[in-house]
């Protein structure tokens, strides 16, 4: 993280994937995403746009085997980058919540930048986890991505699908709801003095 800004650049390399990522929490939502997983690129682009986080991602992985490693490792690195960019969390709003519709789908997300990783994710219809969105991205990757992100960013997140039928709409509504809630939570609040916790640390 650079002084007086909330920007960070990180890299992660394993035998399964190589990822570089940079972000600016105080951006305009600009993004440049190339992960080799087209639907995942679409979801990360939506996250950047709706959270007003500038985001650049370059990832290569063993997608000829499965998209699992690329999606999980990107979630890990994005979570680590969010944690680093938030710094000591001084002056942030801390909490955010959002309802986001996409046609027949409706998702709710509540975010607490708590320092305590916990994900509650519910409401997806039976069989969603097996559906191939775009022919390559299984529905199960939605939860898997958020598990990786939440653990590494140390967020408490409640993510609930309230209505939904089309798998593409379900996944996109969930990503956008998280993005909108995170946008509120990361925002710098001029009324907040210091760290918004009675403990004095988050």
TrEMBL record:
Pathway: Amino-acid biosynthesis; L-histidine biosynthesis; L-histidine from 5-phospho-alpha-D-ribose 1-diphosphate: step 6/9. Its EC number is 4.2.1.19. Keywords: Amino-acid biosynthesis, Cytoplasm, Histidine biosynthesis, Lyase. It is found in: Cytoplasm. NCBIfam families: PRK00951.1-6, PRK00951.2-1, PRK00951.2-4. Belongs to the imidazoleglycerol-phosphate dehydratase family. This is Imidazoleglycerol-phosphate dehydratase. The gene is hisB.
């Amino acid at each position: 993280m650079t002084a007086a800004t909330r920007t960070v650049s990180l890299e992660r390399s394993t035998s399964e994937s190589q990822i570089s990522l940079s972000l600016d929490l105080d951006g305009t939502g600009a993004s440049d995403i190339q992960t080799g997983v087209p639907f995942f690129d679409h979801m990360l682009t939506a996250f950047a746009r709706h959270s007003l986080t500038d985001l650049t991602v370059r990832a290569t992985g063993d997608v000829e085997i499965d998209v699992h490693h690329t999606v999980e490792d990107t979630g890990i690195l994005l979570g680590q980058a969010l944690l680093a960019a938030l710094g000591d969390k001084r002056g942030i709003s801390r909490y955010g919540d959002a309802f986001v519709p996409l046609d027949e789908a409706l998702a709710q997300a509540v975010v607490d930048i708590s320092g305590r990783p916990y994900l509650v994710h519910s409401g997806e219809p039976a069989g969603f986890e097996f559906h191939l969105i775009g022919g390559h991205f299984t529905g199960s990757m939605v939860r898997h991505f958020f598990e990786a992100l939440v653990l590494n960013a140390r967020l408490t997140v409640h993510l609930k699908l309230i209505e939904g039928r089309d798998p593409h709409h379900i996944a996109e509504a969930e990503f956008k709801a998280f993005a909108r809630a995170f946008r509120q939570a990361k925002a710098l609040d001029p009324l907040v003095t210091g760290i918004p916790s009675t403990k004095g640390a988050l």
